[in-house]
Each structure stands twice: as C-alpha cells, then as structure tokens.
Amino acid sequence: MDEEPGVRKLLRNVLAGAGYHVFEADDGREAVRQVESSEIDLVIMDLAMPVQDGIETIQALRRVRPRLRIIAMVRICLLRACSKAVTTFREAPRRPTC
C-alpha cells in the first residue's frame, strides 16, 4: 500500500516475480477493505498515506485481523531535505583577521 504508483509497481513486480499474489491499495481505507474481503497474509505499507494515515491504518488492520503481518515503510526524500537545508543556510559573517 502506497500512494505512489511507481512504488506500488516496483513492489508488485518484485513480489509477483517471486511468486506471490499481490493486491494493491493507494490509501489506508482501501487496504483495510481488501484485508476484510481477502485472505491477505502480509501488508507492506507506507506510513505517510492520504485519506487515513499509516498509524490509523495499522490500528484498523489489527482490529480486522490481529495477527496480520505488517511491514511499515518510511520514505525520506533526501533531495527535499537537502533543498530545505540549502535554502536555510546562511554564511557566517566574516571577521577581519589582523
């Protein structure tokens, strides 16, 4: 479960290529609906999700299937973090050396 189609495609290709049957969801509520209606053994999910955040989704999944295995991912965009750091960087004032 991830809101990014590219991430879902990558995971689907890897897991399906290894012989697993893959269900996809682009938000937490859809994932909960799928777990309620299907025999799903494992959920791989991003914690930062639209509609229902990852923690709320995990709690809902646990209510539906308490022993469900869940792998929660946290993606950190280094490019954004670096960009923000650079825009807030300030050069220290120079003092004359004598």
Count up the domains.
1
For this structure, the CATH topology is Rossmann fold
The overall pLDDT average reads 75
Assign the structural class, choosing from mainly alpha, mainly beta, alpha/beta, alpha+beta, or little secondary structure: mainly alpha
Query: Unreliable segments (pLDDT under 50, ≥5 consecutive)?
Result: 86-92
- Could you tell me the radius of gyration in angstroms? 20 Å
What's the CATH H-level homologous superfamily?
Response regulator
Global outline: globular
Order of helices and strands: HHEHEH
Count up the helices. Answer: 4
* Biggest sheet layout: 2 strands, parallel
Strand content: 5-15%
Across the major sheet, the strand order is 1-2
CATH architectural designation: 3-Layer(aba) Sandwich
Strand element count: 2
List its traits.
two-stranded parallel ribbon; mainly alpha; globular; 46% helix; 98 residues; Rossmann fold; 4 helices; 10% strand
Question: Could you explain the architecture of this structure?
Answer:
The chain contains 4 helices and 2 strands, in the order ααβαβα. The protein is mostly helical and 98 residues long. The protein has one domain (5-82): Rossmann fold (3-Layer(aba) Sandwich).
